[in-house]
Amino acid sequence: MTEFTAGTLPYCSFTAPDLDGPHVGVGVGTRVLDVTALAPRVLPEYADLFTAGTLDALLAAGPDAWAAVRSALLEHVARSPATRPADDVRLLLPFTVADYVDFYASRHHATNVGRIFRPDGEPLTPNWDHLPIGYHGRAGTVVVSGTPVRRPSGQTRALDGSISFGASAKLDIEAEIGFVVGAGSELGEPVGVGAFEDHVFGVCVVNDWSARDIQAWEYVPLGPFLGKSFATSVSPWIVPWAALTDARIDPPAPHADLQEYLRPAGHGLDLELTVSVNGTVVSRPPFATMAWTPAQMLAHLTVNGASLRPGDLFASGTVSGPERDQLGSLLELTWNGTEPLKLDDGSERSFLLDGDRVTIAAAARTHDGRLLPLGEVDGVVA
After folding, report:
1. Per-residue pLDDT averaged across 312-316, rounded?
2. Which of these three, 92, 115, 142, is where a domain ends?
3. Is residue 1 over pLDDT 80?
4. Entry's Pfam families (predicted)?
5. Could you tell me where the beta strands, DSSP code E, fall in 182-298?
6. CB burial class (10 A; 0-12, 13-18, 19+) of residue 173?
């Protein structure tokens, strides 16, 4: 269980043996404060937002309601209210995922993948420095942390050119940060970079499971499909964007002149991710190196007039830094399996085996050097 600081107050949806159904909660230390139960007394004006036990109604309520609820909860938590141990509850998917989009915002990751998949060509495609590349994923296979992940099957192409069908032999992970949309937008109306905080409620930790052998054969010309759509795991805690004020930083300078709708870039985030396989820490990717900001991703996502809905989720893409121990996927860490990792138990991994457990945690580093845990996403290959 993540130990959250008192000022973070991440939201969750949970059940417990003594409850009739799901409740909304917030994390306080290693305990859960039951917001659904206390709302009629502490948040009477907003109590109806929590009766269903998920974040759906709160997301749709918009930024004024988010701020009012957070302020009241911060004041209430300061009085040391009754809470329950997080180990005594079962954490659920905290909101209904409306749409899911995954970006490709790390220049280091994109360069590495290009060198692996296109060794004889330029690692970055010509458009990479000009727009945040992304693809539309499958909302129905976004699952909460702890959900077992079944190894996918699909078509693959061998080095000799032969085509076969079977279970993926190159099951991988991608360490990412997700952004949860609250307030929607009108169809046909772009959301500019300056309107980001009017629409995005908070962040979560994401593992975008990937079948690299399936992906390599299918991704030309339309991009990822079955190599990605089988499962995306998210942490059960949604950290409000307002809790990350002290972790906001300037992003890296762009490598090209950007179109007006992508300027100014908006804030980057100083986040530190930790990737573990069967208890062995294999990487610590830094989100601060991401070339595209969340606001630019949202602006590009909607610039054609595509509308937002409460519960939309967009993810950053794999977070990778410039160093070998900062890479956010096994594809990069093992250079497509040619340089296996050694785990603490003496075993080696090129890609994931059945029974392997992957845990991705994240924390925000504030301007004064404090670390604010954001939660973790965990999954076992079934």
Report:
1. 98
2. 92
3. no
4. FAA_hydrolase, FAA_hydrolase_N
5. 200-207, 210-211, 232-234, 239-240, 248-249, 268-269, 271-277, 280-283
6. buried
Q: Which residues are catalytic?
A: 109
Work out whether the CA dihedral 186, 191, 197, 199 comes out positive or negative: positive
Judge whether 121 lies within some domain: yes
Q: Give the DSSP letter string of 179-209.
A: EEE-S---TT----GGGHHHHEEEEEEEE--
Domain end, chosen from 92, 125, 160, is at 92
Other C-beta atoms closer than 10 Å to the C-beta of 219 total: 15
Amino acid, single-letter form, for residue 313: L
Confirm whether residue 99 is marked as ligand binding.
no
**pLDDT tens for each residue of 256-283:** 999 999 999 999 999 999 999 999 999 9
Query: Environment class of residue 232 by beta-carbon count within 10 Å: exposed (0-12), middle (13-18) or buried (19+)?
Result: buried
**208 annotated as a binding-site residue:** yes
Strands 84-85 and 31-34 come out as antiparallel
Query: Does 219 carry a binding-site annotation?
Result: yes
Q: Is residue 79 domain-shared with residue 168, that is, in the same domain?
A: no
Specify whether the CB–CB gap between 53 and 36 falls below 8 A.
Answer: yes
Does an H or E element contain 215, and which?
helix 212-218
Residue 62 has a CB neighbour count (10 Å cut-off) of: 16
Q: Do residue 150 and residue 46 come from a single domain? A: no
Residue 56 annotated as lining a ligand binding site:
no
Domain containing 53 equals 11-92
- Give the residues across from 165 on adjacent strands: 155
d(CA 53, CA 142): 19
Q: What is the mean pLDDT of residues 41-48?
A: 97
294 and 348 fall within a common domain: yes
Predicted model pTM: 0.97
Is 176 assigned a ligand-binding role in the annotation? yes
